[in-house]
Design brief:
Helix content: 25-40%
Oligomer: single chain
Largest sheet: 4 strands, mixed
CATH superfamily of the domain at 30-135: K homology (KH) domain
Number of strands: 7
Radius of gyration: 18 Å
Order of helices and strands: EEEHEEHHEE
Number of helices: 3
Amino acid sequence: MNVKVIHKEGMKFEAKTAKSSFIIDCPVISPVEYFLAGIITCSATDLIMIPKNQGKTVTDLVVDGDVVRAEDHPRKFVKLHLTYNFNSDADDTTAARWVMASVETYCSTINTVRDTTEISYSITHNGTLVRENEKIISGTGSKIDLGEIDACCS
């Protein structure tokens, strides 16, 4: 993947990819807002494609992202909470699995920040809150105690 950014004028830049191009107009929309929008869109595409691959349909999808940033520069993301609200023709457990698959495995942008950012999510499916403030496995900054693990002799 390659993206080229070209300064146009003032604080306007053109981003060119192999497939298209778009204008980044700072400070109207900051690069950090574009980055957060990319994270959210990455996961949103998963929430359309995963069900489609299972013969299911998602409608009325809205994903809201709320970020807390560090006070000191480089002002990295410290916490990210994603709120998923959608309808589908699946049960609540399956819908929750789609979100978990996205945030834990498939969404590359979430997985790019997960080691340094505490990430959580909530899910409202078919009008019912099915998960609230769930944390993903990594991204909490704390060690996970797996206890004693027996291993095969070498």
